[in-house]
């Protein structure tokens, strides 16, 4: 049996009440005249005491670091001074919360605070002053809002966003998903800094936001950029990320009413970018041909067939774990669910019966596709390369995702119920959600209506052991040399 070891550092118990008890480290005694810090946590509960201890310890650490940095600062505009101001501000906010108050700047407290709240804060500072009745500077500036908010730069605000604000957005993502999510956000912030500069986030004005918008307008004009004109949706995404950073940061520090300089700023996209589906006859005559994909490694080859008859996303197929593949079930199926990664939407969780080439493909890959787990972009790049080499795209607008669009169209033309179509696609259903979407047997029977006929010879050479000739296992999204013919 394993026992949890609880760290009681800086904690003592007097009677039934826990106290925070900590000596000022020797290297800071010339900066902080408190030889020893003793403060009642006003709780008899161990769990509450541990949380409050952690808050106060963190606040003290940041306070001492801020004092040391300020002592050694290299000039009024130095990075060291900026960091010291930020740490001091964060320490004051943490200490105020530990005392049971929201941190409010003294100006806001004087202007908006109720008289009773101000009195409560003053009494708290007095009670913490001890026998000397001399208020402790760190308590006074925290509880009475005496620390001015520092000039947090845009890049610093983004780091706070990553490390403190956006926890919920990252917690269920796989490492690759987190990397892609952060990369997109960071690119947006870097674009803004490139155009406007790494200005303090509180100094970003509507004029700056409009200048940034004008920069995107220039990029959308043909001939203005060596990389080709930017699309309106691209500009909207990057401006939107700045809008979200600004909003979430000021909500985080308690200034949720601040007007967002990026408000109502977006471009209309008149260009339709709908991905066309594959026609049934094209799939049967051109794609389901024996020998066509023999040069591909087994995992990529089999994923093509699974995509055709499940309508699933590439990321959903390449990340299948063995326990999600139910070949021994009375109705063989795959279960799309979140395991060590985040699904695209809540409605993406579903069970899809395996029929036709998808069933045979999964029988040849009973453990999934481990070489490509968490590498959906790499799968897409490789399959795009393989299809282009074989001229399997009817138009330049077709992509591998066209299989998913074809799956939806085939269900529509077969008269499959709207709710069933939404479920199998993992789409949100606008109708009231009743029932269980039918049994697996019923879903299987529905999919049999759209089944593509195929020659079993397309699986020749697939032994279920995933021949690995030419596989690249790096995290790159550049197409691998997995296709012997293309190479």
Notes on the structure:
This protein has helices spanning 46-71, 79-98, 106-112, 115-127, 137-143, 154-165, 167-170, 175-196, 206-220, 232-252, 280-287, 298-310, 314-318, 356-363, 376-389, 402-413, 418-425, 440-448, and strands at 11-14, 17-23, 36-40, 325-326, 333-336, 350-353. The chain has 487 residues and is mainly α. It folds into three domains: 11-143, no CATH class; 154-252, no CATH class; 280-459, hpI Integrase, Chain A (Orthogonal Bundle). Helix 8 packs across helix 10 (232-252). The longest helix is centred in the first third of the chain and has 26 residues, at 46-71. The two termini are 56 Å apart.
Which tags fit this structure?
487 residues; 3-stranded antiparallel sheet; 3 domains; mainly alpha; elongated; hpI Integrase, Chain A
């Amino acid at each position: 049996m394993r026992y949890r070891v609880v760290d009681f550092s800086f904690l003592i118990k007097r009677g039934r009440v826990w106290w925070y008890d900590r000596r000022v480290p020797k290297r800071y005694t010339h900066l902080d005249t408190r030889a020893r810090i003793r403060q009642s946590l006003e709780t008899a509960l161990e769990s509450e005491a541990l949380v409050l201890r952690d808050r106060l310890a963190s606040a003290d650490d940041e306070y001492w670091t801020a004092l040391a940095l300020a002592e050694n600062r290299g000039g009024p505009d130095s990075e060291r001074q900026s960091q010291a101001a930020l740490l001091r501000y964060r320490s004051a906010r943490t200490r105020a919360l530990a005392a049971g108050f929201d941190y409010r700047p003294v100006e806001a407290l004087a202007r908006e605070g109720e008289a009773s709240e101000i009195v409560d804060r003053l009494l708290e500072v007095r009670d913490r002053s001890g026998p000397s009745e001399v208020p402790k500077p760190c308590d006074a500036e925290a509880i009475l809002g005496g620390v001015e908010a520092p000039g947090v730069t845009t890049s610093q605000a983004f780091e706070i966003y990553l490390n403190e604000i956006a926890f919920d957005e990252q917690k269920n993502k796989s490492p690759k998903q987190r990397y892609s999510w952060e990369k997109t956000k960071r690119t947006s912030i870097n674009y803004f800094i490139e155009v406007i500069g790494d200005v303090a986030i509180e100094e970003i004005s509507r004029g700056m936001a409009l200048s940034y918008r004008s920069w995107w307008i220039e990029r959308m004009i043909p001939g203005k950029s060596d990389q080709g004109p930017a699309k309106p949706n691209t500009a909207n995404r990057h401006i939107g990320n700045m809008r979200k950073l600004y909003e979430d940061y000021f909500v985080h520090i308690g200034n949720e009413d601040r007007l967002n300089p990026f408000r109502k700023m977006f471009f209309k996209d008149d260009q339709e970018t709908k991905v066309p589906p594959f026609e049934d006859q094209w799939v049967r005559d051109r794609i389901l041909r024996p020998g066509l994909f023999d040069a591909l490694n087994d995992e990529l080859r089999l994923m093509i067939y699974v995509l055709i008859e499940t309508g699933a996303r590439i990321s959903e197929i390449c990340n299948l774990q063995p326990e999600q593949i139910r070949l021994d079930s009375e109705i063989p199926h795959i279960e799309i669910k979140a395991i060590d990664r985040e699904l695209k939407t809540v409605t993406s969780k579903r069970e899809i019966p395996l029929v036709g080439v998808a069933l045979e493909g999964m029988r040849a890959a009973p453990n999934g596709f481990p070489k490509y787990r968490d590498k959906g972009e790499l799968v897409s790049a490789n399959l795009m390369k393989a299809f282009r080499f074989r001229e399997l795209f009817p138009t330049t607008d077709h992509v591998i995702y066209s299989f998913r669009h074809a799956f939806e169209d085939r269900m529509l033309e077969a008269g499959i119920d709207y709710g069933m179509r939404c479920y199998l696609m993992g789409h949100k259903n606008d109708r009231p959600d009743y029932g269980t979407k039918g049994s697996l047997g019923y879903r299987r029977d529905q999919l049999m209506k759209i089944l593509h006929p195929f020659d079993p010879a397309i699986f020749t050479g697939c032994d279920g052991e995933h021949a690995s000739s030419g596989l690249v296992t790096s995290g790159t999204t550049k197409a691998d040399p997995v296709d012997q013919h293309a190479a």
